[in-house]
Specification:
The complex is a heterodimer.
Chain A: E1 5-6, H1 7-25, E2 30-34, H2 63-75, E3 80-84, H3 94-103, E4 107-112, H4 119-127, E5 132-136, H5 142-149, H6 154-167, E6 172-177, H7 186-195, E7 199-203, H8 223-230, H9 234-247, E8 265-268, E9 273-275, E10 285-286, H10 292-297, H11 327-334, H12 342-360
Parallel strand pairs in A: 2-3, 2-8, 3-4, 4-5, 5-6, 6-7
Antiparallel strand pairs in A: 8-9, 9-10
Helix pairs in contact in A: 2-3, 8-12, 9-12
Chain B: E1 9-12, E2 16-21, E3 24-29, E4 41-43, H1 45-53, E5 55-59, H2 60-70, H3 75-91, E6 95-99
Antiparallel strand pairs in B: 1-5, 1-6, 2-3, 3-4
Helix pairs in contact in B: 2-3
Classes of the chains: A alpha/beta, B alpha+beta.
Chain lengths: ~350, ~100
């Protein structure tokens, strides 16, 4: 007999074994659900565009629907569940649905702007602990933060609520999108996180709105500058270098998608559509018409079988391990998943240079 | 080491869930800090069997007898392992000592 081993002790071996099995058997180990795309903020860069301000009646599924979906997801083998949005706390049934997901034994992460976290939410997270509450910070000062969100008072509410979560020992992470408006405050935001002992990550890859509007792209900063800010995190730079060295030179595949979408991961949108990921809608299944497993084993199955078209230049490029590019993201930007997204490619180039400089030292 | 007698009884906490995920048997606490991977345990087949027996009714002696009946393992080894098992899970707060 072997004594029970905590997952932390078994460590990477156990996690790797689970991941390998999940790939082999196509188990939906990781998922995300967006129960709403609504948001009360007006962020200049948001890819949800006008969807943010729709009414709850515009196609969002009700509590009973989500309860059933959450049960089915857990039953299908999901361990890591992300509740995202829109702003998920705008749902009046958030507490009920969050609790249900956690009580089904899933490790739940919540993405939120943090401004709607009230005492009841803090109590909820205190009683049923999330894996992580990841709060997006839009600036280090009220002026910049609210220039991005367009809502007066949102900065103070966000920070006060983060402090309230931390006071109760709830695990919080911070992140930001790098924008023209806040680029000069990235260091200050990083400092805010480190002073509180919190993780911090930045993302430079803004995308067009889902309805095709390209307004968010106007808020991008040059890729070189974005990567310079990103790589101020030396651990990230070293980890990226290690990852790149391990993977570069891998044989290119003819498959368009090489990620885990529809292999071990999935997304469900507010209308109840099961998708391979947040950004892809070519393969979809309406969960109002059948079960999660029907969709997972049916409509989503062929997603990874898509092959590249002649002329596609990214599949054999070494930088594909650095550019964060996925064909779905490229598709949002260029109109075709088979076409290179210039800005993402520039991010890859800049990261490659940063790694080369690190290795030269 | 916990001072157990053969009549000591242990019970699974009802806020801990045994889940089969990607071929592993995981004990996931649903009210504590699940983010702490120290709090999530992986059990093997015998562990899952024992987990099912820790019902707040059976004594450790009865649990041991059930294990010996089902698995080909020496009594001394099984007793030592069973004590290590309950000690570990008690410390982690996923089972509770109930009696004697």
């Amino acid at each position: 007999m072997t004594p029970p081993t905590s997952v932390a002790e078994a460590g990477q071996r156990l996690i790797a074994r689970m991941a390998e099995r999940a790939v082999d058997q196509r188990i939906p180990l990781n998922g995300s659900i967006a129960m709403t795309h609504r948001c009360h903020l007006r962020c200049v860069h948001c890819y949800l565009g006008s969807e943010r301000h729709a009414s709850p009646e515009s196609g969002e599924q009700d509590t009973a629907f989500w309860r059933s979906v959450i049960d089915q997801i857990a039953e299908a083998g999901c361990l890591n569940l992300l509740i995202t949005g829109g702003e998920p706390l705008l749902r009046s049934d958030f507490a009920e649905l969050y609790s249900q997901a956690a009580q089904r034994g899933m490790l739940v992460t919540v993405f939120t702007n943090g401004t709607l976290i009230d005492e009841r939410t803090v109590d909820l997270f205190d009683q049923v602990s999330p894996e992580l509450v990841e709060v997006t910070l839009y600036g280090a000062t009220a002026q910049v933060y609210e220039q991005v969100t367009g809502v007066v008072g949102s900065y103070r509410r966000c920070l006060d609520n983060v402090e309230a979560l931390l006071a109760r020992g709830i695990r919080v992470g911070l992140k930001t999108m790098v924008l023209r408006e806040n680029r000069h405050e990235i260091q200050a935001m990083r400092k805010m996180a480190s002073e509180r002992g919190l993780s911090f990550r930045i993302d430079a890859a803004l995308f067009p709105c889902r309805d095709g509007c390209t307004a968010p792209l106007e808020h991008r900063i040059p890729a070189d500058d974005a990567v310079a800010l990103e790589m101020e995190d030396l651990k990230l730079l070293r980890d990226t270098a290690t990852y790149f060295q391990r993977r570069r030179g891998e044989t290119a595949t003819d498959r368009l998608f090489t990620c885990m979408a529809a292999v071990t991961s999935f997304h469900v949108d507010p209308q109840g559509t099961l998708l391979p990921c947040l950004m892809v809608s070519t393969h979809r299944f309406d969960l109002r018409t059948g079960s999660f497993l029907e969709g997972w084993q049916g409509a989503l199955t062929g997603f990874q079988d898509q092959e590249i078209l002649p002329g596609y230049e990214c599949h054999c490029c070494d930088k594909r391990f650095l550019c964060q590019a996925c064909p779905a993201q490229a598709g949002m930007e260029t109109g075709s998943p088979h076409r290179k997204a210039e800005y993402l490619c520039q991010l890859g180039e800049a990261r490659l240079r940063a790694i080369a400089e690190l290795l030269d030292k | 080491m916990l001072e157990d007698s053969r009549d000591t009884v242990y019970a699974r906490r009802d806020d801990v869930l045994l889940r089969d995920v990607a071929g592993e048997h995981l004990l996931v606490p649903i009210r504590r800090n699940v983010a702490d991977l120290q709090a999530i345990f992986a059990l093997n087949g015998i562990g899952v069997y024992i987990w099912g027996l820790l019902d707040g009714q059976r004594s450790l002696h009865a649990v041991l007898a059930a294990v010996l009946e089902r698995y080909d393992v020496s009594a001394d080894e099984a007793a030592a392992d069973l004590h290590a098992f309950v000690e570990r899970l008690t410390k982690a707060g996923v089972i509770e000592r109930r009696g004697v």
